Amino acid sequence: MSEGAASSTAVRRLRRELEALKRSNNSQILVRPAEDNLLEWHFLLHSFPHDSPYSKGCYHGKIIFPAQYPHAPPAIVMMTPSGRLDIGKKLCLSMTDFHPESWNPAWSLETILVGLLSFFMSEEGGYGSVQASPQQRQALAEQSWEVNAASELFRSLFPDFVSPEVPAPAEPAPAEPAPSEPAPAEPEPAQESPMQSSFQSAVESTESPVAADSAASAEREAVEQIPQGSQVPQVAQVAPVAEAEPERPQGAQVAPESDLEAAEEPMECWICRDVTAEPLIQPCRCRGSMSGVHASCVEEWIRIHRRTANTDAPPQCSVCHEPYHGSERMPGVRDFLAHTCQDMGSRCLRTVLLVFMLLAYQVCAMDDNLMLPLRVGFFTFFGLLFVYRVLVLLVSLPAHRLPPAQPLVRFFVSEPTQLALHIAEAFTTLLVMTTWAASGFLDWRFYLPFGVTGAFLAAKLFYRRPSAECCRRCGHGFLFILMLPLILIWGIFVLCRKYRHLVLHPLGPGLHICAAIAVIPMAFALQSNLALLILWGTHALFAVASLVELFCIQKFRWKKGFFWLLLVQVAVMACYTANLCVFPAGVGNQQQSVIIVTGSSFSWLLLLIFLSLKVNWQLCMQQLCAQPKRNMSALWCAEPQSSFEALPNLAASPW
């Protein structure tokens, strides 16, 4: 990520983080920003306890900040082998981008690194953890200096840690300075130049200078807590060093002069850690440095947090757990339906295009009567699309990896939903073409390039010697695909046995699901479309009568629930299957049969969709009210007006 991608809020916050780390007395952590990237910082973990297997080691890692920092969490990657954490992989911690739902913008970089150090010393598992014996970790600790010294980037950022001639913590020497804090008599301007050069140009254009003592007090007073159940329990014990207000005897009067001084002292926003002309608000019950925040900062954080939240609960402060004093502007029904239709429409369009491309490729491969330029042009177009999909998967897999260098970074996809969509489409393409090749519907010459590419992708995922658990899961997935028809039959049997009161109930979805399932084998087995037309016509009449009862009579109590959604999915599959089959006999000739089957099947499908919506209308309205809170947060914050009221003289005003 380039420097231009960093927002002004991220630049100001990172500058304050750097100033706070310079004043820190933590002798086990050393941090240096990268010279060419504002959003990439490198750190060292060293001076471990003497009884630890890491005591002789020095471990290099880096933190990659998102452009939305501090509203979004960073990623942590280790660069030095340790036997505890894997290298080149994003670590799964509660304060990283693996768990954005638990992120708190009040957490400072020092808090994150202290939590990482605590996790490093523990034996907790997770993605990125490595199991090794103490002897292996001791050997890797002794080799860590050579590994670090071999890196040119490490030598430029941490020249004092190229050799292991550093005071060990087991030898107490109070007079000697810690490795991360050079002696005052020997200043090292060469070490500070990488830190300052990354921020100088960006900071001058995005912020005004702020007093250092205000930054120090705000950093100490921040209440930084890790949520319960997180992987780094020790971070939750970080307490504020100084109180927001000095202690006074009971009944003591405060002089007006002190109020004036407190009111004149500028307070900084606890999210961006900056003092600007924008007034501070008090959206919760926090006091001290956690009481003042810019309305734009807290609204931006709520908007991003809504996208990753696990629940639909109203936004609340992660420190005092008080719901924020504000109002959410929810989108209307039209906006929600427009967003939903656009999302579903784009996915359906991608599916239709994929099916069309596969069918066209099969026709061009098997029909020698087509014009040669047409076949060559389509093969070239289809091949380019497949190469693009392969490059995306090669660059982006395995998931949670770091972005590659130019020019491959343009194919990198880190968003889980988009990456899953690429994987599903590529897997579907290979599965369909493999089935065609095995059944004789596709010549093996036209299948071979795609089969070899799929095998190469699979080998690329396994080249790092996957664990037995990974192999076991892959084997289970392969068996699941092979036995999918039997699994579906068994699942239907179990559902019918468990919910027998819904299967045969005329006001439930059971009979409709049975009719939809019956369409699939009939479409494959029958040569005439007459039986299907009779089934669709009879079922359609029953659906029309049901809609009349629901709209006009309203005397019966229909069974609501998830199985109506299952009905729609099975009906869509049945409609798709019937339109793929050819019926040489029955109503109309072969060309007319296609039109008749298509019209009848889609009319039947629409009636079932309307019936399912009407029966579950109340449930749909509840889902309509709940979804905008999580998926439509950008709409209720789209207008640049604050949902909170600013509190004047916040520094001196009591709660």
Notes on the structure:
- It holds the Pfam family UQ_con.
- This protein has 655 residues and is mainly α.
- It has 3 domains: 205 residues, Ubiquitin Conjugating Enzyme (Roll), CATH 3.10.110; 150 residues, no CATH class; 149 residues.
- 52% of the residues lie in helices and 4% in strands.
- The strands form 2 sheets. Strands 1-2-3-4 form a 4-stranded antiparallel beta sheet. A two-stranded antiparallel ribbon has the order 5-6.
- A hairpin with a 6-residue loop joins strand 1 and strand 2.
- It is globular.
- The C terminus is likely disordered.
- The averaged pLDDT comes out at 75
Query: Tally the helices: what do you get?
Result: 21
Number of domains: 3
Strand order of the largest sheet: 1-2-3-4
Q: At the third CATH level, what is the topology name of the largest domain?
A: Ubiquitin Conjugating Enzyme
> What is the end-to-end distance?
42 Å
**Strand tally, please?**
6
Biggest beta-sheet profile: 4 strands, antiparallel
Unreliable segments of 5+ consecutive residues: 167-198, 200-263, 628-655
Classified in CATH, the superfamily of the largest domain is Ubiquitin Conjugating Enzyme
Query: What is the helix/strand order?
Result: HEEEEHHHHHHEEHHHHHHHHHHHHHH
Named CATH architecture of the largest domain = Roll
- Give the % helix: 40-55%
Dominant shape: globular
- CATH top level of the largest domain is Alpha Beta
| Backbone CA Rg | 32 Å
The fraction of residues in strands falls at under 5%
Question: Helix- and strand-based class?
Answer: mainly alpha
Biased composition (Pro residues): 166-187
Domain RING-CH-type: 261-327
Biased composition (Polar residues): 195-206
GO molecular function, one term: zinc ion binding
